[in-house]
Amino acid sequence: MQLFPDIGLAKCIPGFDGKEYRPGIVGLIILPVLAEAYTPHQPVATSYMLLRIWEEMQQYVSGYVKEVIVMNPEYVEIRVRCGLKFHSDCSVSLGKNRLQQLINNWIAPWQGIKQLPDIDSDLSLSVLYQQIHREMDIEDIFYLTVIRVGREGQLYELTEYRHGQENRIEREPHVIYIPVKEHTIHVFSGEPGLGIDEMEIDENLIIM
């Protein structure tokens, strides 16, 4: 860190190569200071910075280490689906906007205060559920789910977590969660019925 003042945070992951664990590998996750990041909402180091760090690390590699892999974190989008009922005197449009902000802050609080992300932070659905009840003017939450939007090339991998079934949102050691552009919030005036739900990923419409 002292050799590279443009590094904001670094995390060492023994045995991790960015996809799997292998013996003799040392993974090094790099986050630049925000002033050096092209995209502050998803800060990543340049390839030149990663190469400089990799070259410097070679002189410290012992005989027990086969390879040091210097990499950026992987940013993975999180979409929240929530069905709820506001109190009758609550503005639905204002309430939905407040809820969007609350969810975004739960996923990535560092974005709102312009700081680097916490590489080791985890997400808990129970925490989000309690925050919504505590901070929003609602009568009830009918359902609360989180969809992790993973991507491998042109393919999407969607993983759903439901409040009451799963609590902790699983995360690989190099992954940082960020919110999608807009979450799916359904407001009901009474008990929700059955129906078709939909969401959009990039420009693709997904029917659920």
Average pLDDT score: 85
Structural class: alpha/beta
End-to-end gap: 46 Å
Shape: elongated
Classify the beta-strand content into a percent band. 35-45%
The run of helices and strands is EEHEEHHEHEEEEEEE
Helical proportion, percent range: 10-25%
Helix count equals 4
Biggest sheet statistics: 5 strands, mixed
Describe the structure.
The chain has 208 residues and is of the alpha/beta class. 20% of the residues lie in helices and 40% in strands. The strands form four sheets. Strands 4, 6, 7, 9 and 10 form a five-stranded mixed beta sheet that branches. It is elongated, with a radius of gyration of 20 Å.
Secondary structure topology:
Elements: E1 7-16, E2 21-32, H1 47-57, E3 67-71, E4 74-86, H2 92-107, H3 109-112, E5 123-124, H4 125-135, E6 138-152, E7 155-162, E8 168-169, E9 175-179, E10 184-187, E11 198-201, E12 204-207
Compact summary:
The chain has four helices and twelve strands; from the N terminus they run ββαββααβαβββββββ.
